[in-house]
Amino acid sequence: IRWTAGRGWHDAQLTPYAPLSIDPANMTLHYAQEIFEGLKAFRRPDGTVATFRPDANAERFQVSARRLAMPELPVETFIAACDALVQQDKAWVPAHGGEASLYLRPFMIANEVGLGVRPANEYLFIVIASPAGAYFPGGVKPVSVWLSENYVRAVPGGMGFAKTGGNYAASLLAQAEAARQGCDQVVWLDALEHKWVEEMGGMNLYFVYGGASGQKPRIVTPELTGSLLAGITRDSLLRLAGDLGYETAEGRISTDDWKRDTENGTLTEVFACGTAAAITPVGSVKSQGAEWVQGDGQPGEVTMELRRALLAIQTGTAEDTHGWTHELG
Ligand code: PMP
Predict the structure, then answer these.
(1) Could you tell me the pLDDT band of residue 214, with boundaries at 50, 70 and 90?
(2) Which atom of ligand 1 is least distant from the CA of 60?
(3) For residue 104, which phi and psi values (nearest 5 degrees)?
């Protein structure tokens, strides 16, 4: 779908996958006016297909568009484009039974030729699809994380809450540092004090406290400060954990709290969540001055209960009381 100043959105087309022809002076290549989304279509037990919360992706896409001075795509148009592609590619949605899905990648780029820094007058919105296997084909495996004190992903007033390529470009060197330290993933901290936990590479974080003496654990996720992404899985789990009787909260967690509460046994589980893996347990943590195992290093009970509950709704094996699944027949 194209957008042109004065004309708005027009020219929706469903075409076979093919390379784009881009002018070397296309403004996106120079000034990075680009935003994207990620969502999945799952096969249900009766063979029908449904996407998960496409309205939430559409709304976040509008938030990203505003921050990048790009035109907003109506929510209905975003959903209709995803629906049309899934209908076309329905045979590519894997069978029900595992965690495999058809991954959708809607994105928007500036599509004007020019070398001056300003918002473009023309844009392209495109959705592509790719089958995605189960994230953990051999069973859920905890990740090791590196607390990034040298690099920050986003600053107050910046673009951290937007899903734009620049944020991921900024993450690559930190991710390489994490890998050099023998860790799977980087954990971002706040830009000012380098101590408040924000999120993981491409996932939000959750902290599970207590559960001793017969009490239900309390589940806390870092609050949305503006420099982390408002994950749709994060939001779904806040509500799902509430449904399951857990006390939930959004709050501030420092790296010192994380270490201390792990050592004193009150912080029993930590996990990350996002569209790609649903939920990934954190098994160990490393920073410049410290290193610890999270709990017993194995996937925790609450982590796995929430993971099963979320995937059951996404794949259509549990009742969806929130109206999150968007059925496509
Ligand atoms: N944070 C970042 C930086 C991400 O890229 C993602 C993946 N979109 C998430 C969090 C999780 O968001 P969601 O649950 O919407 O996939």
Answers:
(1) confident
(2) 15
(3) -110, 135
CB of 275 within 6 A of ligand 1: the answer is: yes
Residue with tokens 């929510």: 75
Residue ranges, CATH 3.30.470.10, the chain:
2-132
Q: Does the pLDDT of residue 211 top 80, yes or no?
A: no
Helices (H) and strands (E) in the chain, counts: 8, 17
- Closest ligand 1 atom to the C-alpha of 37? 8
- Mapping DSSP onto H, E and C, the string for 168-183 reads HHCCHHHHHHHHHCCC
37 ligand 1 Cβ < 6 A: no
Residue 212 has pLDDT above 80, yes or no: no
Q: How far is the CA of 294 from the centre of ligand 1 (A)?
A: 22
Is there an atom of ligand 1 within 6 Å of 233 CB?
yes
CATH number of 2-132: 3.30.470.10
Nearest-CA neighbor of 209 among 282, 286, 262? Answer: 262
**Would the CB of 210 count as within 6 Å of ligand 1?**
no
Are 318 and 312 a contacting pair, CB within 8 Å?
yes
In the chain, list all ranges with CATH 3.20.10.10: 143-314
Handedness of CA 77, 79, 82, 86 (dihedral sign): negative
- Domain spanning 143-314 has what CATH number? 3.20.10.10
Q: Is the complex ipTM more than 0.90?
A: yes
Torsion of CA 135, 141, 142, 144, to 10 degrees: -80
Q: What is the mean pLDDT of residues 4-21?
A: 97
241 lines ligand 1 (CB under 6 A): no
